[in-house]
Amino acid sequence: MGSARLGILKKALALRYRDESGTVDLPIRTLIKTALAQSSYQQLELGRRRYELSNHLGNVLATVSDKSLGQDSSQTGQADYYLAQVSSASLYYPFGWEMPGRKFVSGEEYRFGFNGKEDDRDWGMQNIQDYGFRLYNPSIGKFLSVDPLSPD
User: Fold this and answer.
1) Full-prediction pTM beyond 0.90?
2) pLDDT tens column, 15-45
3) Which residue range(s) make up the domain with 109?
4) Matching InterPro entries, A to Z (predicted)?
5) How far apart are CA 33 and CA 26, in angstroms?
């Protein structure tokens, strides 16, 4: 895996803060501002973090959740082993176009893909990727503008 992006945390993280009057839901910014000396805790809610499984090219092939699914194969009522909860999986053609029928998404779509770059879903059905200074269209395998560092 290396030191690349390990995963992302879905927005709308709800932290719980317990004070003398009972349980109160506070946004994360409010809880961070709370003094550390006060008695507060974070409720662990599994399934909000997603981790990337990528290949040597940086292509995000699958994402898994931090939630594991217990499997009871012996029918004892206890989990014998655990499987990862797969959030998304996709395969790509050589220039980054996603293979039709070879994509799986469970819930919210993951925003990173080919070469680990962020997908720009505002273009509709086209999957345009943001490379910082220019946009890339993987369906035709070309950038949509000239490299800004190229000589005039």
Assistant:
1) no
2) 555 556 665 555 544 444 444 445 555 666 7
3) 7-143
4) Rhs_assc_core (IPR022385)
5) 11
